[in-house]
């Protein structure tokens, strides 16, 4: 169940990152994390901390609550 949630959050992050034409390395640098960590988040292999989730949402100009909601992209 949690793995599905991780994948859902990661898919939303990836979708909006690509929509804004930002590559993983650039977003990772903007947030202050490694590109490898961002890749794991987007693949649903790792859940970001609340702080990282908020920073990602801010940099992508999306609502952090949407990222953790059950609404799909």
Automatic annotation (TrEMBL):
InterPro entries: Cro/C1-type_HTH, Lambda_DNA-bd_dom_sf, TransReg_Diox_bact_type. Coiled coil: none annotated. GO terms for molecular function: DNA binding; DNA-binding transcription factor activity. Residues 13-67 form the HTH cro/C1-type domain. Keywords: DNA-binding. GO terms for cellular component: cytosol. This is Anaerobic benzoate catabolism transcriptional regulator. It comes from Megamonas hypermegale.
